[in-house]
Design goal:
disordered N terminus; elongated; ten-stranded mixed beta sheet; Rossmann fold; 15 helices; six-stranded parallel beta sheet; alpha/beta; binds nicotinamide-adenine-dinucleotide; single chain; Dihydrodipicolinate Reductase, domain 2
């Protein structure tokens, strides 16, 4: 649940979202790769959740539970306190499977939500798809750029639904932004400025650690899994985004939201080059990952460049969002508002012609075309146009995104954010980190859809 939304409002919004999902057919318990088996619309979807941490318990599980027929029957997590709290949130209906592989082995579970730290995403998703489950996987899809093709292959061969959880793209505002861009209202778009800025401990992922967390309540081995072996650390466990073993920092945690949106709104597939710089200026004691990033990603085929900026040291300029800049207007997206401002360029050559011989200057200003273009009292009325704005109304984006997943599970309609979209959005974020590491631009080969090695 989002701050500022009480439980009743959340449930009301949830039901609006749920009603939007047509309930037609679903495939349950099919073998991996088997054709979808339609079942009656009112049949239940039994869901399991792998990783019931902050994201799941602050909105994702409530979004799933808001849908009639959806039941959360199983959970697992590496910290006991979260398991207990999640089961409480299902009114005791969910069972603790202890281990994620045990949860996947239960044939009565149709679909899983995976919301573990990023270093677990690949193994758990690939195994879940192979076990015949439909998967809602939290963003970013990958921990490394090389993992992408494995996800795509697993989704393609399993014939299961894989939806990545970048909920923003399901918001009404982002859909409106996409329609505006498609309509041509912005003219020729050449630059998108995107930012993600914060300036709090919580914003920098220095979350409070539960006082009962210790080697008895935290399963360190289960957390580390495929990551490098390290001594027990509550900081690593609860603040994993600060460490390269489990996360790509600002770029993969936050820029990935921006990139998903930009790809969606602009109907763009993938950048061809990323050049970036990243420094850790103020968080050296707590973060391996940089606290300040600036990057440029170019899309020559689509004809625009994206500038990305993010810092944990100041949030006054913006919190997060982007501005799409076209020759006819700009579309600014911040928080819950989308604003279109028409572009009204007025030429101003007065200071140039003032250096001409006076007869030529006089002749210049006598030209009616010049007057129309350059004299304030003849500026077109569009100069005074205030533009348009839209505010987010209706259900929260996570609810709508979950509705789309549940709709796909029931109808076998393709995922609204599939493995390719998840791979490309995350790949741009990984290219940012790769460019910082290599200290040079990095290139994507769009023909073979892989990062160029050098
Ligand atoms: N879409 C969004 O807006 C959004 C917002 C926040 C987080 N997220 C994503 O959600 C995921 C989880 O983030 P979070 O903030 O909830 O982190 P978190 O640390 O609060 O939760 C992750 C949970 O996974 C558990 N876990 C770790 N290894 C496990 C294993 N092997 N088996 C079972 N459970 C295991 C941990 O114990 C923890 O409770 C991340 O991928 C993150 O990027 C998305």
């Amino acid at each position: 649940m989002k701050p500022g939304i009480n439980r009743r409002q959340f449930m009301q919004r949830s039901l609006v979202g749920a009603a939007a999902a047509p309930l037609v057919a679903r495939s349950v318990g099919a073998e991996p790769g088997a054709a979808a088996r339609p079942v009656p619309a009112n049949d239940r979807i039994q869901m399991g959740i792998i990783g019931v941490g902050a994201r799941v318990q602050s909105g994702v599980m409530q979004s799933a539970l808001a849908h009639p027929g959806v039941e959360i029957v199983g959970v697992c997590d590496a910290y006991k306190g979260r398991v207990a709290r999640a089961i409480e949130r299902t009114n005791g209906r969910a069972r603790d499977y202890g281990d994620w592989r045990a949860l996947l082995a239960d044939p009565s579970i149709d679909a899983v939500i995976i919301a573990t730290p990023d270093h677990w995403h690949k193994d758990q998703t690939v195994e879940a798809l192979a076990a015949g489950k439909d998967v809602y996987l939290e963003k970013p899809m990958t921990l490394t750029i090389d993992e992408g093709p494995e996800f795509i292959a697993a989704a393609d061969t399993s014939n299961r639904i894989l939806q990545i959880g970048s909920q923003g793209m399901s918001s009404k505002l982002q859909q409106t932004a996409r329609e505006i861009v498609k309509s041509g209202k912005l003219g020729k778009i050449t630059l998108i400025r995107a930012t993600y800025d914060r300036n709090t401990d919580s914003g920098a992922w220095l979350y409070p650690i539960p006082p009962d967390a210790d080697e008895k309540t935290v399963n360190w081995e289960a957390f580390v899994g495929p990551a490098p072996k390290r001594p027990f650390s509550l900081e690593r466990f609860f603040r994993w985004r600060c460490y390269w073993d489990y996360s790509g920092g600002i770029s993969t945690d936050l820029f990935v939201h921006l990139m998903t949106t930009i790809h969606y709104v602009m109907d763009a597939e993938m950048a061809d080059m990323v050049m970036a710089t990243g420094q850790n200026y103020l968080h050296k004691k707590t973060h391996e990952v940089p606290d300040t990033l600036v990057a440029a990603a170019t899309y020559p085929k689509e004809g625009f460049t994206v500038s990305l900026g993010g810092t944990f040291n100041n949030s006054s300029a913006s919190q997060s969002g982007f501005t799409i800049m076209g020759t006819e207007g700009a579309l600014v997206f911040r928080g819950n508002e989308l604003v279109f401002t028409p572009e009204n360029p007025v030429e101003g050559n007065g200071w140039i012609v003032a250096s001409w011989p006076s007869a030529l200057e006089e002749a210049y200003w006598a030209d009616p075309e010049v007057q129309k273009r350059e004299m304030p009292n003849t500026w077109p009325s569009a100069m005074n146009s205030e533009g348009e704005s839209w505010s987010e109304v209706g259900p929260d984006a996570t609810i709508v995104h979950m509705s789309r997943f549940i709709d796909s599970v029931r109808t076998r309609k393709p995922s609204s954010e599939d493995a390719r979209a998840g791979h490309h959005a995350a790949a741009v974020a990984h290219m940012v980190n790769e460019s910082i590491k290599r200290r040079m631009p990095v290139y994507w080969d769009r023909d073979t859809d892989v990062l160029r090695k050098a």
